[in-house]
Write the structure tokens for this entry.
Amino acid sequence: MTAHAVPRRNDRANARRLATLPFAALAALSALALAALCFVAYALWPTWPSKVVPIDAPAIPITVSGVLFNIPPAAIRAAVQRTPGPHERVDLALMWPSLTPPPPERKNADKPAIKPDSEAAAAPADTSERLFVTIAGLGSLLPPLERLRSIYPRYVEVEASAGPDGLAVLPFRAGTPYEGEDLVYVGANPEQFFARCTRDIRGVPGSCLHERLIGTAEITLRFSRQWLADWRGVAAGIDRLLAQLHPG
């Protein structure tokens, strides 16, 4: 009995091993297929070039906070930001009212340049004809309209004065985070257009900050306070600019 029992157990073990061979082969093939798929995906996965794009190149795709923008490299102020792909922020400078990038020789004129045959520095460029734009993620900040409705009213004076072409000028109180600034807005409809503006001090002209929101990307635009004399043209120009940077 014992002599015949051992071969029968071996036969059953062999049968089980034979039955599992197809499954083992299938698992091995699946692993190979998965490895091949991973390699192909890695090889074909789109990557952004890390090399800085030439300043005269066409507009490049840049994402900020997941929002896609098409930005001319010549408008980007920092060379390190002239690369396609995701960025935490992008800083731009544009001529006004053409909304075109500044000429290269004038774009760097904010830094004094020494002439080869003279030690005198070149005069800085007139920034009153430029629109400065910063695109960054909104993060934990409240959207601009929410700040207008719930934050700014806590810090302003009681009465506003009349500004140009239907604007109202409401000073921020001393001792507040916005001391020395004015909240300038359309008197009949503040949400139509509003900005925070510094005042002219000792011959230094004031400037204004106007903020817009596209998705989770905040666009901050800085311009001369003198432009408020034609605030309707400023608002229309900003609309055109955002349509160029973020089509659709």
Q: What stands out?
A: The chain has four helices and eleven strands. The chain has a mean pLDDT of 83. The CA atoms of residues 70 and 244 lie 7 Å apart.
